[in-house]
């Protein structure tokens, strides 16, 4: 007990005068500086930082050290860091590793109720027009090769007039599909390509515009968005059927309601028989415009159980839910 009191007294004394722990920290950083200064010239070069950090088990490439120095605006002339600049490096790295206020608010909103209200909204799947026989189906795809078997089997024909109606945002193909229960019209909409970069125009704006035009021009009974997605913990080739869609980069932190509104993309149609008969895996899809997943998005994925990332899913679901 006496030993415990002495230890507590020492701890309080260390925290009491601000200068005492500042001095201890400066002494520690000075010792580290001397260890990093391998040639003893009083400056730590980027090469020495690279060697020292890797020796400590922090695996970094030389290019990453260069990038960090540029990002923190340190050692612009490549002469190495003196002791004062090394202290500044430490402070800047600590600050950089901290979450911002908005990031902290985002995490707090996620953890407040484990997104339970949002999950209730996502679970509210329903059939639109349940009494209507399906006579018009739209298949939206970014890359035509992803549905090559469909194209080969049904051989849809290019519809130039419909393509113009879609403002060339999508290339339209149509076919009539006969089934034992009757027939339906299939419209395949392939996302248009950039005339500048000669790549397909995937992403939020393109998919939302195409989906809105689909609702207005075609008023289909069923819309299927098909394509490849980044699976999370899934085997390559797994077929996933979305049971809901969320935005993973629309964080609004003014209130819990606005936060849930920003994340919510839309629900999907419940098709239990399709899942059962074809053995599809059902799960929540997350959409974001960037290919880099932030720590806040990772937290959201963990709480909601997102199983795949698809850039177009949430904006498409949002527009279709609003247009009915």
Question: What does this protein look like?
Answer:
The protein has 324 residues and is an alpha/beta fold. 47% of the residues lie in helices and 18% in strands. It contains 14 helices and 10 strands. It has helices spanning 2-15, 18-36, 46-55, 62-71, 83-97, 101-112, 116-122, 148-154, 160-165, 204-218, 256-263, 272-278, 295-304, 313-323; strands spanning 136-141, 157-158, 170-179, 182-191, 222-226, 230-231, 240-247, 264-266, 281-287, 306-309. It has a 5-stranded mixed β-sheet. A 5-stranded mixed β-sheet has the order 6-10-9-7-8, with helices on both faces. A hairpin with a 2-residue loop joins strand 3 (170-179) and strand 4 (182-191). Helix 2 (18-36) packs across helix 5, helix 3 (46-55) packs across helix 4 (62-71) and helix 6 (101-112) packs parallel to helix 13 (295-304). The radius of gyration is 28 Å and the shape is elongated. The N and C termini lie far apart (71 Å).
* DSSP summary: helix tally: 14
Mean pLDDT: 88
In total, the number of strands is 10
Strand content: 15-25%
What Rg do the Cα atoms give?
Answer: 28 Å
Structural class: alpha/beta
Distance between the termini: 71 Å
- Unreliable stretches (pLDDT < 50, length at least 5) are none
Biggest pleated-sheet summary = 5 strands, mixed
Quickly list its features:
single chain, 324 residues, alpha/beta, 5-stranded mixed sheet, elongated
């Amino acid at each position: 007990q006496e030993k415990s009191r002495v230890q507590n007294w020492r701890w309080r004394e260390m925290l009491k005068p601000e200068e005492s722990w500042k001095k201890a920290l400066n002494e520690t950083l000075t010792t580290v500086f001397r260890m990093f200064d391998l040639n003893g010239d009083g400056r730590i070069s980027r090469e020495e930082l690279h060697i020292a950090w890797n020796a400590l088990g922090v695996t970094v490439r030389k290019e990453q050290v260069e990038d960090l120095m540029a990002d923190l605006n340190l050692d612009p002339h490549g002469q190495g860091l003196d002791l004062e600049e090394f202290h500044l490096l430490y402070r800047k790295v600590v600050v950089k590793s901290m979450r911002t206020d908005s990031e902290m608010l985002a995490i707090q909103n996620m953890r407040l109720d484990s997104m339970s209200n949002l999950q209730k909204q996502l679970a509210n799947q329903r059939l639109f027009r349940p009494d209507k026989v399906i006579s018009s189906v739209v298949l939206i795809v970014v890359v035509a090769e992803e549905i090559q078997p469909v194209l080969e089997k049904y051989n849809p024909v290019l519809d130039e007039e419909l393509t113009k109606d879609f403002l060339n945002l999508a290339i339209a193909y149509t076919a009539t599909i006969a089934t034992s229960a009757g027939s339906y019209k299939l419209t395949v909409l392939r996302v248009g390509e950039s005339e500048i970069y000669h790549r397909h125009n995937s992403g939020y704006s393109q998919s939302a515009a195409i989906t809105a035009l689909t609702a207005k021009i075609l008023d289909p009974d069923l819309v299927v968005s098909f394509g490849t997605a980044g699976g999370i913990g899934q085997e390559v080739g797994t077929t996933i059927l979305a049971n809901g869609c969320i935005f993973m980069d629309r964080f609004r932190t003014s209130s819990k309601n606005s936060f849930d509104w920003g994340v919510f993309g839309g629900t999907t149609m419940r098709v239990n028989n399709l899942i059962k008969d074809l053995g599809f895996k059902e799960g929540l899809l997350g959409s974001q415009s960037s290919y880099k997943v932030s720590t806040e998005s990772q937290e959201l994925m963990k709480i909601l159980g997102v199983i795949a990332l698809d850039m177009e899913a949430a904006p498409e679901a949002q527009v279709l839910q609003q247009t009915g």
